[in-house]
Amino acid sequence: MSGDHPAPLVGIVMGSRSDWETMLHAAEKLQALGIPHEARVVSAHRTPDVLFDYAETAASRGLRVIIAGAGGAAHLPGMLAAKTAVPILGVPVQSKALSGLDSLLSIVQMPAGIPVATFAIGHAGAANAALFAAAMLATTDAAIAEKLVAFRKKQTDDVMATADPRTA
Ligand SMILES: Nc1c(C(=O)O)ncn1[C@@H]1O[C@H](COP(=O)(O)O)[C@@H](O)[C@H]1O
Questions:
Q1: At what angle do helices 76-83 and 101-108 cross, to 10 degrees?
Q2: Angle subtended by helix axes 123-138 and 142-161, to nearest 10
Q3: What is the C-alpha separation between 168 and 162, in angstroms, rounded?
Q4: Which residues does the UniProt record annotate as the domain PurE (predicted)?
Q5: What CATH number does residue 24 fall under?
Q6: Ligand 1 center to 66 CA (angstroms)
Q7: pTM for this entry
């Protein structure tokens, strides 16, 4: 975001444009909660210099958390974590060849010392990474905390309103 938009607190990055179909679920949640964010394609493999620059400038640009999605040999989240102390939330994108198990294992098995918080494969993981980012920000931001509580309440109300599976 730029211009009149507030500085982003959350960075959403992904290894390829093809990951957007998954990562938009993170963006949608942040949008719904009114959390300023940005979205970028950054690849450890295809644009390594851009990755280094993104990681090295993240904290000074005001990013408080980065959600990183990648598929297959998903090195992006781990390499970001190696280059910044901003918390990295990793989202394994569902790959065609191995259904995302490759992505999951590439992200989750970090060596001790360089943590990446790893979420579920695919859309649910992207959405939950955004909600987790919101929960992190909510520890120091009362307005975000309020929005998160309201989101959870609405979710509960929506489930309860349709709790009888026999109704249409
Ligand atoms: N895993 C990575 C990285 C990385 O980890 O840096 N860069 C691209 N990719 C992944 O390659 C897959 C296929 O990409 P294409 O669809 O562009 O061929 C994507 O899921 C992407 O995240």
A1: 20
A2: 140
A3: 8
A4: 8-159
A5: 3.40.50.1970
A6: 17
A7: 0.96
**pLDDT computed for residue 112 by the predictor:** 98
| Closest atom of ligand 1 relative to the 45 alpha carbon | 6
Q: Would residue 76 count as lying in a domain?
A: yes
Residue 143 C-alpha to ligand 1 middle, in angstroms? 35
3-class secondary-structure state, position 92: strand
Q: So what's the pLDDT on residue 167? A: 85
Residues within the annotated binding site for substrate? Answer: 16, 19, 46
Per cent of the chain over pLDDT 70 is: 97
Host domain of residue 136: 2-161
Quick check: CB of 105 below 6 Å from ligand 1? Answer: no
Structure tokens at 73: 């040999």
Q: What is the ipTM of this complex?
A: 0.99
Of 48, 58, 62, 45, which is closest to residue 6 (Cα–Cα)?
62
Enumerate the known binding-site residues: 16, 19, 46
Is 19 in contact with 71 (CB distance < 8 Å)? Answer: yes
Residue 149 maps to a domain: yes
Q: How far is the CA of 78 from the centre of ligand 1 (A)?
A: 14
The residue among 154, 83, 144 whose CA lies nearest residue 116 is 83
Record the tokens describing residue 68, joined without a space.
């990183």
**Per-residue pLDDT at 87:** 98
- Count of structural domains, the chain: 1
Residue whose token pair is 């990562």:
23
